[in-house]
Amino acid sequence: MVESPALAAPMTAPLDGRLAAARHAFSTPERIALSASERALLAGAAEPPLRHEGIKLARWTLGAGPRVVLVHGWNSRGAHLLGFAQPLVEAGFSVTLFDLPAHGDSGGHASSVVHAGRALRAVMTAIGKVHAVIGHSMGSAAALLAFAHGQQVRRSVHLAGPSSLTPMVKGIAKAQGLRPEDAAAFAGWVEGFIGTRLTYVDLERLQHGLRHPGLIVHDPEDRTVPFAASQALHAAWQGSQLDTVTGMGHRRLLADADVIARSVDFVAAGRSQ
Description:
There is one protein chain. This protein has helices spanning 17-27, 36-41, 82-90, 113-127, 138-148, 165-175, 180-194, 203-206, 227-236, 257-269, and strands at 46-52, 55-63, 67-71, 94-98, 132-136, 155-159, 214-218, 240-244. It is an alpha/beta fold. It has two domains: 35-162 and 202-272, Alpha/Beta hydrolase fold, catalytic domain (Rossmann fold, 3-Layer(aba) Sandwich); 165-196, no CATH class. Helix 5 links the parallel strand 5 and strand 6. Helix 1 (17-27) crosses helix 6 (165-175) and helix 4 (113-127) packs across helix 5 (138-148). The radius of gyration is 18 Å and the shape is globular. The two termini are 30 Å apart. The relative contact order is 0.15.
């Protein structure tokens, strides 16, 4: 896969409002502040920010033992996966969570799944040896990118994540009501922004990195990321299992005790490999 960390230069031609909205939806996340309870749980766990592509990535580590990295999704932050942290620590793991570019306390003003994948690779490289990754939504897709670029783990958990970028770009174009010619222009802009072709961020080009056991969890009624994305990932990944949940939508599974327990048990089982 060919990537470039540099962002594309802004388009100079006048943009239709819907096309501009599509660009914004793809590249500009909402920055969420820490809640008081999250701040209390993270007290004393902050590590020095990791310098990455001209910005600083905020990160925290709790516990001791084999390392598990938690990766949040779009319009989120690392602390939103804190529900997994204490059970993992109690199971004998150390847990690193961090804020992706342009999210939470990290620097930057724009992001994408490709930016997230590069950031995750930087965090994993800084750690050295990572036992497992748990990713939600875009964080799951970032993990697929990291694995395709050579990062290795014993186990990974993928919660309601997209498995290919092309259908996500098409979904944004449809949601913004773009005409076919504008949808094509939007796709071209995305490729310039992420520095690679859309097809290079699709499952067919990423599946070679899936060499370890994986747990995939998704609600078929998820309205944010289609369940078909996890079905496709499971079909392409021989070492995976697909668990369906109900009544969780896209985000509620992050706080569900059963989903957390299943994920921790799956990660812990990798210690005997």
